[in-house]
Amino acid sequence: MPSIEKKSSIVDVIAAANQIILGKNEQIRLALACLLARGHLLIEDLPGVGKTTLAHTLARLLGLQFSRIQFTSDMLPADVIGISIFDRESSNFKFLPGALFSHVLLADEINRATPKTQSALLEAMEERQVTTEGETRPLPDPFFVIATQNPSSQIGTFPLPESQLDRFLLRIELGYPDRQAERALLEGGGRREHLPELAACFNPDQLIPLQKQAADIHVSPALLDYVQLLIEATRNSPMFVHGLSPRAALALIAVARAWTFIDGRSMVLPEDIQAVLPSVACHRLRLVHSADHARPEDIANLIRAIPLV
């Protein structure tokens, strides 16, 4: 069980983030669960709905080193990873780390870069290290990628390959604010100018133990049976080109544990699995009769079709 002090800190993060990102409590909780599960987050939506602001907000509240890369079509992998330059004084090459070497990396509009540049993140996201010029360099711990992308229908975008999508533990959409939240935004003005006022609730040394505690949340054998039924249903469904992989099943358990930890509980419930499954599964499942990925309503139908064990 998380201690009262640590639970309060998590609640403080969510409460403070809700003052900046209005009306998006569930998305904030999912983003925090993604970090606690040591994953990476993909936010896909229209420009101007708060994707970048959410990334800035989480980095400040979590007390983590933050860097941002604006992806463009002419970027090269070295712009992400870093480059080596010749140092005359030492007569050696010196490596200058890129923005990738930070606790939180905002990969803004990642699908505006070419696949070659997108691939620069693959090793970093999976192995938490990068290999350049024959040398492997570890990344900071924790390491959290928040990537934003615009809808693929917009001009100048390159679709993320399946291998890249699978590196993202969760995919979320912010969507338009509800009427009440939008009215508060219109009356109070933009929220990004309030970011410097946010006080950090954590630092990296405090966050790592929380990630370990989240990973230790209990999952019963009966719940694992339920997860297996859900995974098998995606593989047997005629709706999807292919089902969820074992890596996706592990992702589902990890996020459900983190979601449970945020609530201050010691055991994952079926409701926790159901709450996070759409964000884990939609970007990993492609529909048979179109080029689109699965929608939340497709996953909701799947959940209704699988009885609790």
TrEMBL record:
Classification via Gene3D superfamilies: Magnesium chelatase subunit I, C-Terminal domain (1.10.8.80), P-loop containing nucleotide triphosphate hydrolases (3.40.50.300)
| Keyword ATP-binding attached | yes
GO MF terms here are: ATP binding; ATP hydrolysis activity
Q: Which CDD domains match?
A: AAA
Q: Which Pfam families match?
A: AAA_3, AAA_lid_2
Residues in domain AAA+ ATPase?
Answer: 37-178
Per UniProt, the keywords (alphabetical) are: ATP-binding, Nucleotide-binding
Segments passing through the bilayer: none
* Similarity section: Belongs to the MoxR family.
User: Mind telling me what this protein is named?
Assistant: AAA+ ATPase domain-containing protein
